[in-house]
Design brief:
Largest interface: A-B, 15 and 21 residues
Distance between the termini of chain B: 12 Å
Oligomer: heterodimer
Largest sheet of chain A: 5 strands, antiparallel
Shape of chain B: globular
Shape of chain A: elongated
Radius of gyration of chain B: 16 Å
Number of strands of chain B: 13
Order of helices and strands of chain A: EEEEE
Helix content of chain A: under 10%
Structural class of chain B: mainly beta
Radius of gyration of chain A: 14 Å
Strand content of chain A: over 45%
Strand order of the largest sheet of chain A: 2-1-3-4-5
Largest sheet of chain B: 8 strands, antiparallel
């Protein structure tokens, strides 16, 4: 899932306002010319003025971590 | 979806496919390395045992000291003078859209636990441009690779790699490349 400002169910925390920067990160593992599928998930990094958080999406699982 | 392709570089690059083995050997394919010495040739071996890189004059990088290397058994040289085309390994990442790479690491482990080194192997690696080798045994001692901060549909990593057996017998390990695409 990638953030899309045009979709009604995609919203940032209202009182934090819009982040200064949003980047989608894709962790990978590769061994001998193949991708190891066990580590393919997406991370949305949201950078605010005073802090940065990462929203990790792995299938149906979603978690947030502070950077 | 990005694709990752590993090559043993040489006059012509040889792809190291999912079922192939990167073989570090003595003077030729399937020849042994004396315990304590480092590889004098490097090859790609298929799962059927064939020498896949035989016609491609594959590169060899032999560890000499922490900051010296021999390329294709030539004179010892400073590791920092190695150029991209002389490295043993090329890992190519491709995508249809521009991307960057950060926090990439490279190491060898026992194939089961990323924290556990292979048995009786000394594995020395460096990224082209490095001044010193890194003994990349297990994820905790991984070689940190440079970030790729210029977005492109293709990013390449050139890695100098050499190993030495610490005891008799066939020694194996699994090379692993990790990082984050942005």
């Amino acid at each position: 899932m990638i953030y899309n400002a045009d979709k009604p169910n995609h919203s940032y925390f209202a009182d934090w306002e819009k982040p200064q920067e949003v980047k989608i990160k894709r962790p990978f593992v590769s061994q001998r010319g193949k991708i190891n599928e066990d580590k393919i998930y997406e991370v949305a990094r949201l950078k605010y003025q005073n802090h940065t958080i990462e929203v990790c999406i792995d299938g149906e699982k979603v978690w947030i971590k502070k950077c | 979806m990005s694709t990752f392709t590993w090559y043993l570089q040489g006059t012509t690059n040889t792809e190291i496919a999912e079922t192939d083995i990167l073989q570090f050997a003595g003077m030729g394919f399937n020849s042994t390395i004396i315990v304590g010495d480092y590889n004098k040739s490097t090859h790609v071996k298929t799962s059927a045992g064939a020498d896949k890189s035989s016609a491609n004059t594959p590169n060899n990088n032999r560890y000499v000291s922490s900051n010296q290397v021999s390329i294709n058994e030539g004179a010892n040289q400073s590791l920092s003078t190695v150029v991209d085309s002389e490295a043993t390994l090329l890992i190519k990442i491709e995508d249809t859209s521009d991307f960057e790479v950060e926090d990439a690491v490279f190491y060898v482990y026992n194939g089961t636990s990323v924290a556990t080194p292979p048995v009786d192997l000394d594995f020395q690696v460096a990224e082209v441009g490095d001044t010193d080798f890194t003994q990349a045994l297990g994820k905790g001692d991984a070689l940190a690779l440079d970030d790729k901060t210029v977005a492109s549909t293709e990013q390449n990593y050139y890695i100098v790699a050499s190993l030495s057996p610490e005891d008799f017998g066939t020694r194996t390990g699994t090379m692993r490349f990790e990082g984050v695409l942005i």
